[in-house]
Fold this protein.
Amino acid sequence: MKSIFKAGCGLIVLFGLVIAALLIYGKSGGERAVGEFFAKAESQSAAEFRELIHPGLIKEADPELIQVFMQTVQKECGKFAGLNMNGMSFSDKYENGVRTEEYKGSFRFEKQELPMEMTFVDGKLLGFSVKNQAVAVKLVAALRVMPASLIRPYAEKAAAFWTSALTGKPEEAFGMLHENLQVQYGKERFLETFNEMTNQAGKLTKVIFVSSRPKKDEEGKVLFFFKLDFVNEKGVNAHSVIELAGFKGHLLGFSIPSSETP
C-alpha cells in the first residue's frame, strides 16, 4: 500500500510538470506570434503587411484597414507587452497539414489590458476581435476617417474601377460596386452605359489620379478625382466615391463627367 501511494504521488507530480510545460510553451509561442504581428503592423508597408493576412480574411476585410486598426490599438493602449495567462485560452493544432493557432483572453499592452481573440492559420491572421465594447467602438470609429497612408491604395482601387469599366470589361467593374449601388443602378443599365461610352470615345488609354478629399457632410466618404484619356477624347473629369465602413472600403458612387469640385 505504501509503495503504491508513493508511485501515485510521482505520477501526479509528473502530470503537473507536463501541464506547466504546456502553459509555458503556449505563453511563449503566443506572445511571440502576437508580438511579431503587432510589431510588423507598425513597421511594414501595406504590401508587406498584406502577406500576413490569410486569404479567407482578405475576402471579408481590407488588409490596409486591418493594419490601421492594429496601429490604432497600440496608439490608444501602448505597445503589445504580452499575454496574461490568468484565464488565457490557447490552442496550437495541425489538421490535414494546416496549423491553426488560437489565443483568447487578456492581451497586455503598456497602458492597459484588452480582452481579445486572435487566430492564425499557417502563420497568417484569419480572425481577430476586441471584446471590450467601449474600446472596440472607439477603434472602429477611427477607421471612418481615411488616414493619408491609405489615400494611395484606395486611389488605385478607384482607378481600377474606371480601367475595367472603360476597357471592355464593364461586368468586372460592376462587380466592384457595393451591392446597394448594384441594385440601385442595375447591371443591364450599367453595361449599356459604359459600352456606349467606349463606342463613342474609344477605349480608355490613361487614368490620371488628380486628388482626393472627404465628401462634405457625409462622414466616412472620400471623393477620388481623375482625368481620363480615351482614344478620341482627352482629359475627361471623373470621380469615384469610397466609404470606409467596418473593415472595408466600399465603392458607393461614381460620376463621369464629374459633378464635384476637387
